[in-house]
Write a structure and sequence with these properties.
five-stranded antiparallel beta sheet; 2 domains; Glycosyltransferase; 19 strands; eight-stranded antiparallel beta sheet; alpha+beta; DUF2264_N; 649 residues; Beta-galactosidase, Chain A, domain 5
């Protein structure tokens, strides 16, 4: 029985040349025209709400595509609809006009949109600023500068004001404040913690997600280093040095097919997570080996190709959906408007480069061979990245959002995050199926009516063997306290060369009450070849397996499994291939989650131990299912480190 599938409107674009990338961008810009207001200043793409007002939301729909449009124009390209944005700048900043955006207040969402606008003025002045009348220019400058005396969040938002002033100074308007820009930059530099990484906030913040890279900070540093070189050369060189260091870590967040590892918030920005690679090229950074311009080109273009092929990322008219691989409001934040996904357009920064630039002149190269089949301990973000055996994922302990964010336990608190399988978010609050508890240890103290997952991690650190340059990473270790009187200590052990598709989790639990537990592996596409739910199967064919203390699921997406090893532990959990509620997972709307479940009495002065082995083997490219022979790898279980076994005695 053949399944009827709908292709993305961009699926036929090979995305290999600058013209191909330009065509992709134009294909995203053109559908916005029918949704644009008569004066051009507002783009209305839907009716869902945000914590800010509708005018600010419609400004998002106007401003965020400018990341791509300005880059296209800066690189000598043409776009027939450019007049819509020029007209919008005039009407949106006219305080007496019907489409006025409104002057900024303290911590106003409008501030966010000033980043793209300031960038556009800096790189495409002749196309977006010069055509305006003198009155329109003064209105525009007054509106943009209205943020200079306002309070801003103590986060990456400060970069938005930097770019507002950078844009105004680049067009020569006196309202652009170099003094304000310097103060903001000096403060942003206090977020830097070394090895190329910056926190998304002051000391005490442990948030090092895509905002620390492509969404905001690293991208902004690189763009600034190109545009402010003459005025601020020392800082610009420092930003380039940070980027060179950061690239060594960030490359591990991408797989050979171009997918980034979904982690953290704002994932509806999609390809913006790869825009760091284009920003490296925009800033003409001298690349550190083994990175070459061909490798950088591959990292950027493969990610764009991946998103071009995702039909669920677009509505039939070509506008973008809110979600990840398909429309999904369960995973969004309260600041995601229908225009928010167009932060995606930061990935088109490479269009600002001439054809002669090494990025375009180089032959595209595959993922660097020297970085394949590696495990990398990333000390600053408290991650361990692995691509052994063809599965790119990270182990995580220690990050959490410093302010309330929807589904923050899922976005920051899970034990593992995969480029192939994504992560899941809750769609309700009463059942495990609603929880979407992949890669987490879920606990209940009321027979399963309410489940808690790790959200706030304590005492997280990488533990090493040896010292100095010769030291070797062992695992991530951390604590979690879901209730008073309950403590969980967790060790996350990366894959080993002889069992490359398995990683280990060891949990020590001490509790003053009875608990119910459910630990999940990777959530995986849960349908068979006929499109119906997977059925039980004991062989390598598609299906699920529940056998004693193990569970697994095999489908066109590959294989996911979980097993209780025992090995000195005191648990006798049972395996279940759980069918999670629809639309929990970011990548597939119907998923199966291999899970280990049990109930446990109070521990008293002793502890109980869980020793968990988690298996993940993604399908490669367009292949249907995992490579033949995977059951041999499944049956070869990993060995628990002796040091951890000793702790269990």
């Amino acid at each position: 029985m053949a399944l009827f599938t709908i292709q993305s409107p961009f699926a036929s674009n090979p995305i290999k040349t600058k013209d191909d990338v330009r065509a992709y961008l134009v294909g995203l810009l053109d559908p916005l025209a029918p949704h644009t207001s008569p004066g051009g200043a507002r783009v209305h793409l839907g009716y869902t709400g945000t914590h800010y007002d509708d005018i600010a939301a419609q400004l998002e729909g106007f401003s965020r595509p400018i990341w791509g449009l300005a880059s296209l124009l800066a690189g000598g390209g043409e776009y027939a609809g450019t007049h819509r944005w020029v007209k919008g700048f005039e009407s949106g900043t006219d305080p007496n006009g019907d489409e006025f955006w409104g002057y900024m207040r303290d911590k106003d969402q409008r501030m966010v949109e000033c980043s793209a606008i300031g960038f556009a003025l800096a790189v495409a002045k002749d196309r977006l600023w010069d055509p305006l009348s003198e009155q329109a220019k003064n209105n525009f400058a007054k509106w943009l500068a209205s943020m200079n005396d306002k309070e801003m969040p103590n986060t990456n938002w400060l970069w938005f004001r930097v770019f507002a002033n950078l844009g105004l100074t680049k067009v020569g308007h006196p309202l652009g404040s170099k003094e304000r820009m310097k103060k903001d930059l000096d403060h942003l530099d206090t977020f830097y913690i070394g090895d190329g990484w910056s926190r998304d906030g002051p000391e005490g913040v442990v948030q090092l997600d895509y905002y620390s890279s492509s969404f905001a900070i690293q991208f902004a540093q690189l763009a600034y280093s190109k545009l402010a070189q003459d005025d601020d050369p020392e800082r610009c060189e420092e930003f380039r040095n940070r980027a060179r260091k950061f690239a060594f870590d960030f490359v591990h967040y991408f797989d050979e097919e171009g997918r980034g590892i979904p982690f953290g918030r704002s994932l509806t920005y999609r390809a913006a997570m790869s825009s760091f690679w284009g920003a490296l090229a925009f800033a003409d950074v001298e690349l550190p080996a083994p990175l070459t311009w061909g490798a950088i080109k591959g990292l950027q273009l493969r990610n764009l190709r991946y998103w071009a092929k995702q039909p669920g990322a677009y509505y039939p008219d070509g506008t973008m959906t809110i979600g990840y691989c398909y429309p999904n409001h369960n995973m969004t934040e309260n600041y995601n408007s229908p225009g928010s996904p167009y932060w995606f357009c930061k990935a088109f920064a490479v269009l600002a480069l001439p054809e002669s630039h090494p990025f375009w002149a180089a032959q595209e190269e595959p993922y660097p061979a020297a970085l394949r089949n590696t495990v990398k301990f990333l000390e600053k973000p408290l991650h361990i990245a692995s691509n052994l055996g063809g599965h790119t994922f990270l182990l995580s302990s220690g990050q959490q959002c410093s302010y309330p964010v929807k589904q923050s336990a899922a976005k920051y608190g899970k034990l593992a995050y995969s480029s192939a399988f994504g992560y899941s978010v809750p769609v309700g609050s009463l059942t495990l199926e609603e929880l979407g508890g992949d890669n987490t240890l879920a606990l209940s103290d009321d027979a399963g009516e309410v489940w808690k997952c790790r959200r706030e991690t304590k005492e997280a650190r990488v533990e090493w063997e040896g010292s100095g340059e010769g030291r070797k990473g062992k695992w991530l270790r951390s604590m979690w306290y879901p209730w008073k009187g309950v403590e969980i200590e967790t060790w996350l052990v990366p894959p080993q060369p002889d069992t490359p598709l398995w990683h280990l989790r060891v949990h020590r639990i001490k509790s003053d009450r009875k608990l119910w537990s459910a630990e999940g592996g990777f959530a995986i596409y849960g349908q068979g070849k006929d499109g119906r739910a997977l059925e039980p199967s004991t062989g390598e064919n598609f299906g699920t397996l529940e056998r004693g203390s193990e569970a697994r699921a095999a489908s066109r997406a590959g294989v996911s499994g979980i097993a209780e090893l025992g090995n000195g532990g005191s648990s006798s959990r049972k395996g279940k291939a759980m069918r999670t509620d629809a639309n929990t997972n970011l990548m597939v709307p119907r998923a199966v989650l291999p899970t280990l479940m049990d109930e446990h009495g109070p521990t008293g002065d002793k502890s109980i131990w869980f020793v968990t082995a988690v298996y993940g083997l993604p399908a490669i490219g367009d292949e249907e299912g995992a490579k033949p022979g995977w059951e041999h790898d499944w049956n070869k279980r990993p060995i628990v480190p002796g040091e951890l076994l000793q702790l269990m005695l």
